């Protein structure tokens, strides 16, 4: 089974459970119904904001630790210099 199938199955199950709880088909034990009605509609937005925060954090961490890959860093700098030299040879102002 591929990762796509697993993610699809798990997310379908979780969405089904969420909808059943949201429409009060399944009761939530140990939680008052009024509290559940206040919290459950906000859960998708909370998940979206959490996913966005995680994505920004992981992107920022990747940028922050980019210099920890010295070979890739030097290769990228070399490619930038080659591009600049190529543009200068074509009479394009760089810098």
From TrEMBL:
One GO location term (cellular component): dolichol-phosphate-mannose synthase complex
Keyword Transmembrane in record: yes
Top-level taxon of the source organism: Eukaryota
UniProt-listed InterPro entries: DPM3 (IPR013174)
Keywords: Endoplasmic reticulum, Glycosyltransferase, Membrane, Transferase, Transmembrane, Transmembrane helix
Pfam families in alphabetical order: DPM3 (PF08285)
Topology versus the membrane: Multi-pass membrane protein
Subcellular location: Endoplasmic reticulum membrane
Spans through the membrane: 7-31, 43-64
Pathway: Protein modification; protein glycosylation
Any one GO MF annotation of this record: glycosyltransferase activity
GO biological process per UniProt: GPI anchor biosynthetic process
Role summary: Stabilizer subunit of the dolichol-phosphate mannose (DPM) synthase complex; tethers catalytic subunit to the ER.
Subunit-structure text: Component of the dolichol-phosphate mannose (DPM) synthase complex.
Family as reported in the entry's similarity comment: Belongs to the DPM3 family.
Protein's UniProt name: Dolichol-phosphate mannosyltransferase subunit 3
Organism, as annotated: Suillus subaureus
């Amino acid at each position: 089974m591929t990762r796509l199938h697993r993610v699809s199955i798990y997310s379908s199950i979780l969405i089904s459970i969420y909808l059943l709880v949201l429409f009060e088909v399944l009761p939530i034990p140990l939680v008052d119904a009024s509290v559940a009605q206040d919290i459950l509609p906000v859960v998708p937005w909370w998940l979206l904001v959490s996913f966005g925060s995680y994505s920004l954090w992981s992107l920022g961490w990747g940028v922050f630790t980019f210099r920890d890959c010295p070979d890739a860093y030097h290769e990228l700098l070399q490619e930038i210099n080659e591009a600049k030299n190529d543009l200068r040879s074509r009479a394009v102002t760089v810098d």
